[in-house]
Design goal:
Keywords: Metal-binding, Pyrimidine biosynthesis, Transferase, Zinc. The chain is α+β, with helices and mostly antiparallel strands and 154 residues long. Helix content is 14%, strand content 34%. The chain has two domains: 96 residues, Aspartate carbamoyltransferase regulatory subunit, N-terminal domain (Alpha-Beta Plaits, 2-Layer Sandwich); 48 residues, Aspartate carbamoyltransferase regulatory subunit, C-terminal domain (SH3 type barrels). The protein contains three helices and nine strands; from the N terminus they run H-E-H-E-E-H-E-E-E-E-E-E. The termini are far apart. Zinc ion (ZN) binds next to loops.
Amino acid sequence: MTEKDTELRVSKIRDGTVIDHVSAGEALHVLAILGIDGSGGESVSVGMNVPSETMGHKDIVKVEGREMSEAELDVLSLIAPDATVNIVRDYEVAEKTQIEPPEQVTGLLTCPNRHCITNAGEPVATRFDVIDDGVRCAYCETIVREDITDHLAV
Ligand code: CTP
Ligand code: ZN
């Protein structure tokens, strides 16, 4: 079976976003980042461990009626660095973006260090530098490597 054939398991969408080439096992984190838990009413299709010619296996997430903000793409890049974001309009891929990690993410993650200035009730937005294997708080230098999505501020 070819990649195209297997992808037909997850049907095409009319309008919305297809996040393709997500590392196998990360699809549910992608949904968490998008804040999608089903309560919003949008149609969501998730393919997990779908065979992929280039990746072996991959996950794929399709969300109808929803396009993504720059900020969401920034966090997404941390857990799905190889993802392709396709904006679909009237069944056609209208825009295709290869995700790229930003140098910094501001206001999206919380610092796990409770003594950090960003946790002191001051009006200070969190800021993390993106490093090779995670993110580092720009204020207290605490490094978060795993389960970055547990630290989402949203
Ligand atoms: N897709 C979809 N609904 C549509 C159009 C596309 O769900 N109406 C999905 C396809 O199934 C695919 C992704 O969006 O997973 C990208 O579509 P397309 O660019 O046509 O596929 P490829 O050329 O294989 O993409 P790439 O080159 O990025 O691998
Ligand atoms: Zn900190």
